[in-house]
Design goal:
CATH superfamily of the largest domain: 2-methylcitrate dehydratase PrpD
Number of helices: 15
CATH class of the largest domain: Mainly Alpha
Helix content: 40-55%
CATH architecture of the largest domain: Orthogonal Bundle
Number of domains: 2
Strand order of the largest sheet: 5-2-6-7-8-9
Length: about 425
């Protein structure tokens, strides 16, 4: 039963997504609201939590070369709701022009929703005589409420999305045992994540997306400016995937726990090591499975959206995967967790943007270093910072820091971002 439970976790938490998941979730809510609206759409109202706004403000919308929550909502109203987080697949110039018209005519309104929920999106679509409202909460595809003309036609708010207790069977021991014993055929979702995420990583290495972090590192490796080894290749391939994704590439990614960058960071460092060090396919798939599951497990304590950078958590998973790939024991994997959480835990999230590729590169570098130290029997001691004797307890400390300590940080970060946006709008 535990094996099947883990397989179901992978099926649920590894989701194919096109574009940054926050604006795409807005687009999805808009698409569903428009689908339930009678008559011709006149206007859209979007209410979103602060964390959604923080991550949706400045990131490019796939296929458009532009950013903005209003654009995501407008395009979503023209998209296919059945495609979930790939709702904007097939966006054409005509769609972009129509969406831009809606924005210029003032038919899209976006405001902050005062809510304790970090992930909350409410979209109301209106025609001349009708309206439809959709609410997404807690997960990027978790539709909890639909109204048509004020009449509730679907509601899950009484029995909300499952609590984290549903994952209570997950811990370092059970994850390690599952990865060691599960038949390879049951890891098809992990294998798919390797294929999809490597494709966008290689795309980023070839083309100049965004800040070109990955491409620049890769070219330096090939010219002799950087050593052509597993560590630099892991940094280059992973950050190149983030470069492409955050700059609006039309390629999808396999997300982890609702984030495409987390999916990339949990996958590609391990894949890069496997390629450079000539490990077999089965070893790589099992190591990536360990990375994904460790990421999911830590995220249940950390929260889906936070003041702290989610790439650091996915990189912690990757460090575990890299350690395991090199025949590291369960104790070495635990040591990798301790090293990571004592190193880059304090990296803040100041919204989704092109600069995320730099954070992905930094986190990947730390993952490689932490694995190397763990394999040599080196781990940060429990006398230091938030680190405990037991890695499980360290993870709980991280959750405390993220969920309680991050509240005020989140507020300040969002205030800075909104004030800056207003200031830039006023410039001639």
């Amino acid at each position: 039963m535990c094996e099947q439970a883990f397989v179901e976790v992978l099926e649920k938490e590894l989701v194919v997504a096109l574009g940054c998941t926050e604006p795409i979730a807005i687009a999805l809510a808009s698409a569903v609201a428009s689908k339930h609206l009678k008559g011709t759409l006149i206007s859209l109202e979007v209410l979103a939590s602060g964390n959604i706004i923080k991550n949706a403000m400045g990131v490019s919308i796939p296929g458009t070369g532009r950013a903005g929550m209003n654009l995501a909502a407008a395009l979503g109203s023209l998209g296919d709701a059945d495609k979930k987080l790939e709702v904007l697949c097939g966006v054409k110039d005509g769609h972009i022009e129509e969406a831009q018209r809606m924005i210029e005519e003032g038919r899209i309104r976006v405001e902050k929703k005062e809510t304790l929920k970090k992930l909350y999106i409410e979209v109301t679509a209106k025609s001349l005589d009708h309206s439809a409202k959709v609410i997404i909460e807690d997960r990027h595809t978790n539709i909890t409420h639909i109204e048509e003309d004020g009449v509730v036609v679907f509601d899950l708010q009484e029995k909300m999305a499952e609590k984290e207790e549903a994952y209570s069977f997950m811990n370092i021991d059970s994850i390690f045992h599952f990865v060691e014993t599960v038949p390879l055929v049951k890891l098809h979702k992990v294998k798919e994540s390797i294929r999809i995420n490597k494709e966008i990583g290689e795309e980023g290495l070839k083309k100049g997306y965004g800040l070109k972090v990955g491409k620049t590192l890769y070219e330096a490796m090939k010219s002799g400016g950087q050593v052509d080894d597993a560590i630099n290749y892991a940094m280059a391939l992973t950050s190149a995937g983030s470069d492409a994704r955050m700059a609006g590439s039309s390629l999808s990614v396999m997300s982890n726990s609702g984030s495409g960058n987390q999916g990339l960071t949990a996958t590609l460092p391990v894949v890069a090591y496997g390629e450079k060090m000539s490990y077999g396919e089965e070893a790589v798939i099992r190591a990536v499975a360990l990375s994904h599951l460790m990421t999911i497990y830590i995220k249940t304590k950390f929260g889906r959206l936070s003041a702290l950078c989610g790439a650091t958590i996915a990189a912690t998973g990757a460090s575990c995967g890299i350690t395991y790939l090199q025949q590291g024991s369960k104790e070495a994997v635990s040591a990798a967790i301790q090293n990571m959480l004592g190193n880059i835990t304090g990296m803040i999230c100041d919204g989704a943007k092109g600069g995320c590729a730099l954070k992905v590169a930094t986190s990947t570098s730390a993952a490689c270093m932490s694995a190397t130290l763990a394999l040599s029997g080196i781990a940060i001691g429990s006398q230091e910072g938030i680190i405990e004797e037991n890695a499980e307890h360290t993870i709980l400390n991280l959750g405390l820091l993220s969920n309680q300590g991050g509240v005020e940080s989140d507020r300040i970060i969002l205030d800075i971002m909104l004030e800056k946006e207003n200031r830039l709008k006023k410039k001639p």
